[in-house]
Amino acid sequence: MIQHSDVLERSLNDFAIEVPSWGFANTGTRFGKYLQATAASTLEEKFADASQVHIFTGKCPTLALHVEWDVPKGTTISSVLELSARYGIRPGSINPNTFQDQSYKHGSLCNEEAEIRAQALDHIFYSIELAAGLSSRDISLWFADGSNYPGMANIRKRKEWMEEGLRQAHDHLGPQHRMLIEYKPFEPAFYHTDIADWGMSFLHARHAGPQARVLVDTGHHYISQNIEQIVAWLLSEDMLGGFHFNDRRYADDDLTLGSIDPYQIFRIFAEIGHYEWETNTKADIAYMIDQSHNVKNKIEAMIQTVTTAQELYAKAALLDHEALEFHRAHQEIIDAENVYKDAFATDVRPLLQDWRRAHGLPEDPLKAFRASGYLKEVARQRQGRQKESAAYA
Ligand code: AFD
Ligand code: MN
Ligand code: MN
Fold first, then answer.
1. 293 lines ligand 1 (CB under 6 A)
2. Which atom, in ligand 1's list, is nearest to the CA of 22?
3. If you placed Cys at 241, which of 108, 180, 309, 384 could pair as Cys (CB 3.0 to 4.6 Å)?
4. Please, what's the b/e burial string for 127-155 (b: 16 or more CB within 10 A of its CB; e: otherwise)?
5. Is 138 within the bounds of a domain?
6. From ligand 1's centre to the CA of 182, what distance in Å?
7. Which residue's C-alpha comes closest to atom 4 of ligand 1?
8. Has residue 176 been placed in a domain?
9. Are 266 and 315 in contact (CB under 8 A)?
10. Cα gap 209→31, rounded to integer Å
């Protein structure tokens, strides 16, 4: 019988999680935001805060960058690489912003005006060049494109414009890049969104080219959707590029992972684990966090999210895949389900503490971070600056 500790050693060692720059800055809801004295407002502060998460969890070596908020036109590659070297955090996925500029009021790659479509494509080209300069592999594309009223849009024409734009973007990729196409059923558009579900993302990725994949944001599904079924299909088609992790009660709430439905995330990891067991391969998936909520302290929320992800990933790693296959083959329903329930019910926290100790990490990352005094220090340094950074940037 393989020891749980051996299973965890193997599974946790290569489970790295990317943190988002925007998760450290003041953000909020469309009804406003509560500014935090310790929130980051410069790229350097985002690198500094991300390095705290990595120092205390040991598993967050990359920082997702948002082009307009972090590396707008004119930013030098060397200035970003200097911050990366100073804080020991590598640039992660590059996130173009084709939704905030006023010119995107009626869409970006799906805009009826050809020059706006060209503007959006140029921005994506710029983002790809940034990725090349920063040695980032993934360009992570999310489009707010859509419409708010029936009759407003020619949905088929917009599909063709998006397809054309993504194909041209794909042709701009270097051989080392991937293009991750994210979907979202609604918001900010409330009648139709041009890339609204996994099928649309999948087709666009397939049409764009061999380096395109689907990005699954766990908050971007209708409440009843079976996300692990989507994950299983994408794994089967080798089209799963990665995740944006968060949790939701109602919609795209960007609540911290596992705060509402941890079993959902466990079932997603179970699908991936069973795929890897059956194929004896490691799925090439980018595990990224995409959350930035109003009320929890930004760095503490990120550390809590990472340790929650590790716990759920560790639980899924304990699944008895042989037993699962045996019970499935014999249609032993309760036994098969109990394989899931037994793994999910296992308290892996002591095993995680052992794993952390063995790797020179604090047993309780959040407690250790709180004891470090970092928040007190940055509150002093950043006090009074928050009003300047009222936007995402
Ligand atoms: C918003 C969008 C989407 C995107 C993220 C970062 O809903 O999830 O990935 O911003 O741009 O959350
Ligand atoms: Mn996302
Ligand atoms: Mn989102």
1. no
2. 6
3. 180
4. bbebbbbbebbbbbbbbbbbbeeeeebee
5. yes
6. 9
7. 142
8. yes
9. yes
10. 39
Give per-residue pLDDT as tens, 167-209.
Answer: 999 999 999 999 999 999 999 999 999 999 999 999 999 999 9
3-state secondary structure of 211: coil
Alpha-carbon distance values, 80 to 70, 89, 299, 393 (Å)? 9, 10, 21, 16
Per residue in 287-329, pLDDT (tens digit) is 999 999 889 999 999 999 999 999 999 999 999 999 999 999 9
Contact between residue 256 and residue 295 where contact means Cβ atoms under 8 Å apart: no
CA–CA separation, 15 and 21 (whole Å): 20
Let me know: does 40 contact 24? Beta carbons within 8 Å. yes
Pull the structure tokens for residue 219.
């908050």
**Atom nearest to 95 CA in ligand 1:** 11
Into how many domains does the chain fold? 1
Structure tokens at 116: 């706006």
The mean pLDDT of 217-221, rounded to a whole number, is 98
Q: Which amino acid is at 96?
A: P
Indicate whether 389 belongs to any domain: no
Does residue 391 lie within any of the structural domains? Answer: no
Confidence of residue 2 (pLDDT cuts 50, 70, 90): low
Q: Whose CA is nearest to atom 3 of ligand 1?
A: 142
Alpha helices, DSSP H, located in 237-297: 262-279
Q: Who contacts 322 (Cβ-Cβ below 8 Å, separation ≥6)?
A: none
Residue ranges making up the domain that contains 25: 4-382
Nearest atom within ligand 1 for CA of residue 184: 7
Q: Which two tokens stand for residue 310?
A: 């590790």
Q: Kindly state if the Cβ of 244 falls inside 6 Å of ligand 1.
A: yes
State the CATH number of the domain containing residue 326. 3.20.20.150
Question: What are the residues facing 178 on neighbouring strands?
Answer: 138
